[in-house]
Predict the 3D structure of the following.
Amino acid sequence: MNEPLSIERLKALVLAYGTEPERFPAGERDAALLLLSSSAEARALLERERELDVVLASANAPELSPNLLRRLNEVPVRFPRAASRTSRWAQALTGFGWAAAAAFGVYWGAHSASLEAPAAEAETVSGEAATELGDEELETIELALGAIDELSEDL
């Protein structure tokens, strides 16, 4: 119980949960009981609302006419639920797509080179591509891959 309960809050609790404090939310029940024990206005509010609870508890639910029951039971037939926009096959294909993407990610992660590989182990441009590139391009690629630390000045 952090804060005392106001009369307005007690009225809101009574309107929502009835006059039995056991039905109040657990976090506010103790504060409501403290307010009821210390305030004549709160007790008067509870007594006025208790009369309504007694009337509602003693009221019998009316019998529904057979015509109304029949019409209520026909609602699902007259207004069928709209079919799902996605078919079961589309849902299965979507699930398969996600599973394939996850499997590919696991495979790629298991077979890719470490991002923190030492500079000596960094890849360099291989045979065929090296013959088509000039020295300047090769050196730029090796610098990007971490195989060398700086560009030479003579290029």
Observations:
- The mean pLDDT is 81.
